[in-house]
Design a protein that fits this description.
By secondary structure, the protein is an alpha+beta fold. The protein contains 5 helices and 4 strands; from the N terminus they run H-E-H-E-H-E-H-E-H. Helix 1 runs antiparallel to helix 5. It comes from Faecalitalea cylindroides.
Length: about 100
Amino acid sequence: MKNKAVSLIQFAFKARKVVLGDALIPSIQKTTAKLVLISTKCGQNRKKKLKDKCTFYNVPWLEVEPELFDQISHRSFNSLAICEDGFAKAIMEEMKG
């Protein structure tokens, strides 16, 4: 289940349909983000801010285990946005199982 989600996220990275870091909140506000993934180890303030923005702008979000992010890339990050509908829908289906 998780392996297919990881593969889909990696494909999204290669297709340049992933937003990280400082560009994450503006992508939610512009609604270019179609799905936001937040690590459970993300800080409480950041987590609350991301969830509030997603709720306000009607962007779906999922809270995932940090191990998922470790499998995606060697880079360290706690949250990301998928900016393409097809990837977002497929990842949500895989994550919800």
